[in-house]
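Continuing from the previous page...

OK, I double-checked the sequence for Nicotinate-nucleotide--dimethylbenzimidazole phosphoribosyltransferase against my notes and this is the correct one:
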Amino acid sequence: MTVSPWWQQACRQPDAAAEAAALVRQAQLTKPRGALGALEALAVRLAALQGREKPAIDQPHLTLFAGDHGVVAEGVSAYPQAVTAQMLGNFVAGGAAISVLAREQGVPLRLVDLGTIDTSLELPGVRHLRLGAGTANFALQPAMTVAQCAAALQAGRDTLQQVLAEGCDLFLAGEMGIGNTSAATALACALSDLQPAQLTGPGTGLDGAGVGRKLAVIERALALHREHLADPAEALRRVGGFELAALAGAYLACAQAGVPALVDGFICTAAALCAVRLNPGVQPWLLFAHAGAEPGHAALLAELEAVPLLDLGLRLGEGSGAALALPLIKLACALHGGMATFSEALVEDKQ
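Thanks. Re-ran it with the corrected sequence; updated structure tokens here:
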């Protein structure tokens, strides 16, 4: 008997009764109907996901997944691979943007190193999994072995289960990995009808010639693996990356556990697309933080029919856009739950 992989297990269903109750409440609050725009829809959406008329975000958790990419050998990044490990040190020291955003909001920041080129790296508070010294060069061979890909997916699932044990009502994730815009672009193209020319961008700051070189590498890789890309799990293994797989695994686990996930930028959105392709039941559980400046992000969001909360021209990654959107989500819940109704405030409603 063939046993289905864990990521194909059923996802939770949003609570229709809670959604209906939240809609009724929104119609009774002391404001013109629809006056708070997208914040109203966000509160109602969270009510359905949390199964209560008045949703709240009291225990958000943020995890950053890191890993290196062998495709950097093709000259697809403006930065050397050593930067991935160096930035992990910066996260630990509190000097990175996401470190500041997490600290200022009192959000726990968990760091998971899935596999950097520095296999001896030892940093306090970092979970070092060492699945490999980065992935293999997917322009020449599959990025991951079957075992590595499964372990990376499981790492995302394990992380979600760990934060659930501590209490979590919104899961935020970020990533770090030099070369990962190339992997995200290749993966997104493999999982959709989108073309590399639509999605390939400068990443960490490539010039025009660099973007052209990156595009050629991605096109060559997709041609190399073309016969194997119909299966989303195999597409992830062949042209994805450790942190992309971990992100996808975390999003899958969120949907199965009934925890909303806040998706960050281009890399995380590619991982979210992968999670949805692996299990379509994931989609209702994904909230999208922002529309990033990386050229392909808008097309990826459209592929997922996603409406981002912010548009600030961000292209940092690290989960920074998700962290910036968190206060907005909290305020949407506070407005929904804390405003008076017309009858409570003794204010006359419209006829």
